[in-house]
Fold this protein.
Amino acid sequence: MDLKAEYLDLREEMVAAIDGALTSMRLFLGPNVEALEQEFAEFCGVKYAIGCGSGTDACQFALQGAGVGPGDEVITVGWTFIATLAAILHAGATPVLVDIEPQHLCMDPAAVEAAITPRTKAIFPVHIYGHPCDMGALREISDRHGLLLIEDASHAHGAEWQGQRAGSLGDAAAFSCYMSKNLGAYGEAGLVTTNDEAIAERVRLLRNHGYISRYEHSLVGYNSRLDEIQAAVLRVKLARLAESIEKRRRQAEFYRQALADTPLTLPCEEPGTRHCWYMFNTRAPRRDELAAFLEERGIATGQHYRVPAHRQPALAPYGLDKYHLPETDRAAEDVLILPCHHYLTEGQIEGVAEQVRAFYG
């Protein structure tokens, strides 16, 4: 991301928004948070959006708000940031991992059925890189087994499946608003979306120590109140989110044309979906060599996820490294993320493509 270019573009409006938040001195859960929640709910096409302190908290609260807790199992993937699995563990539940499908690197619905046990409470798919999972297949499975379907939409602000936006496709959804995201704060922030009033109310309680009135708390919650400054920043960006996604979509198509004659396997968009292109993920022969070659020429790349979440040392005590996930392991060997943000020019994209072609000869 070129966050500086974005800030300079939005500076006048951003400074005014932040100054307004500070002038009011209502520094958390104030008018900007309330307005952001309403505006983001409308954007996603849901009744409720609840702001919180981070995307990790949003994942945890979406699960807990829907009733996931100790003794429950939650089916998810290893091809994700560690926060997805941490949120399940923080909720007191047990992650059960399934593999990804090779095309879009999203949860493979065909693997979910075999992972269901009497303890399964929820399916927790991750819309990775901005491409939505096959929510039709996952909804059919969840409905047939009486399971919750909760989206980790941390990469998917503005993505769509069958005309519905991410955040409206399950019983609840979690969004990260980390600074690099399509809708990113200038610090930490998260959002939970749902159409279920009971889930929304419980998430509100969880984020604010169970507060229901002065001196009265109904549950042991957390300190995860979204502050007014971050909400003001997000409101400025949300007003331009649809436009910035359109730019990313044009850039992705230009990338696909510019890299068509290279050995890279390029990402695509499944019919009936609308990719929001949080990242432009390729699969690259000799990935590490190519990454070093591009780095030497001033082109930053990413390798999300070189070490999948379930293989992280922090999760070893939970036994998650026992899972055999061959597609996940293959992705860890060859996925390479190329620069992708809405201030990237076609000239810069062509420059990346030229260097990729030079590397492969």
